[in-house]
Amino acid sequence: MTIRVLIVDDQIMVREGFSVxxxxxxxxxxxxxxxxxxxxxxxxxxxxxxxxLMDIRMPELNGIDATREIVAADGGAKVLVLTTFxxxxxxxxxxxxxxxxxxxxxxxxxxxADGVRVVAAGEALLAPTVTRRLITEFSKLSETPRxxxxxxxxxxxxxxxxxxxxxxxxxxxxxxxxxxxxxxSTIKTHVSRVLVKLGLRDRTQAxxxxxxxxxxxPS
Length: 219
What we know:
By secondary structure, this protein is α/β, with parallel strands linked by helices.
């Protein structure tokens, strides 16, 4: 199945460069481009892409607010944030708004394509060590802890809570299964239940939730 991508950036060279790189991949098709967040929201509704490559700092409507609107529309599009710096405080805000992960603008063609594939497949945490560092650093900016998050945690079983903590630490399903000495299929079931109970879209949102509920404490 071909992955449909919308590229959102106010710089034409960035849009054209990413478009050329992604269209060269046999399983990826760039279906459109947008120059700001407002146009991005409109084109997501029109084109129904699988993945949106979203710049953060744009005129008219920034990438954070655009991401929030796209996620709220619940059309199934996954947002992959583009940033120049891996410790950009706005990236954390975008993750809270519903983005599925982030990618540096200087990523190679292979990293760009792999990032799109990973997000499209629902495996939201990109480069776990980098994403974990970003979440850890900027979760310090959020309310500590969120009362609503604490209430929702009470709905999880002990094992589900344990799995959530390991997700927040950047572990894959296979690594969690090895750590808990259970089958990977069992972990997939636990992850799905955690997402449903907490009303979350993916693993990145689960990681952010775990930090905000203070199940994991920033170091």
